[in-house]
Specification:
Layout: E1 3-4, E2 8-17, E3 26-36, H1 56-75, H2 85-95
Antiparallel strand pairs: 1-2, 2-3
């Protein structure tokens, strides 16, 4: 799990493959999935508990999750680029 927002959780998945003998593992795919918590009866989104990153890798995934979310919202037409504060802050830091 990489990040919990208000009602959704982003999950990072890595897929590994081996040769036919089970040797030489290699990463062959990775993806981010977003799941929304839904109330069983009313079918409305519900709050999810916060995620606590434990390792350095989890911390990096956690910190970048807000930028990935904003990018998805922009591409989906749900927010305007000028309203993507985390993305704007990230690119401003790159310019320095």
């Amino acid at each position: 799990m990489t990040r919990a927002f208000n009602t959704s959780v982003e999950i990072y998945v890595e897929v590994f493959a081996n040769d036919i003998k089970g040797q030489q593992p290699r990463r062959c795919n990775h993806a981010y999935f977003t799941f929304v918590a839904v109330d069983d009866k009313k079918k409305n989104p519900v709050q999810v508990p916060p995620v606590l990153p434990l390792s350095n890798e989890e911390q990096q995934l956690y910190e970048s999750a807000a930028r990935r979310r904003e990018l998805r919202l922009i591409l989906g037409g749900r927010i305007k680029p000028k309203d993507a504060t985390e993305l704007r802050k990230f690119f401003a830091e790159l310019e320095q």
